[in-house]
Specification:
Length: 67
């Protein structure tokens, strides 16, 4: 039964990935939006999250630690 659950989980994950990937591949950014993304020195992280913290201070600014 454990093997069946494992195969079911794997198949479900593959199905979900196949359903979500085409939408991500079809996303198109303008040059201005693309310029806002980056590793350092940009307003947004590479994934599009806002790098700065919030005004209340409950969410800290993102700081990347290079290893």
């Amino acid at each position: 039964m454990k093997l069946f659950n494992s195969k079911l989980k794997t198949a479900s994950a593959m199905l979900l990935a196949a359903a979500l990937l085409p939408g991500a591949a079809m996303a198109k950014l303008s040059d201005a939006d693309l310029a806002r993304l980056g590793i350092e020195g940009t307003e947004l992280t590479p994934m599009g999250a806002i790098r700065a913290g919030n005004a209340e201070g409950t969410i800290p600014a993102l700081s990347l630690i290079h290893i």
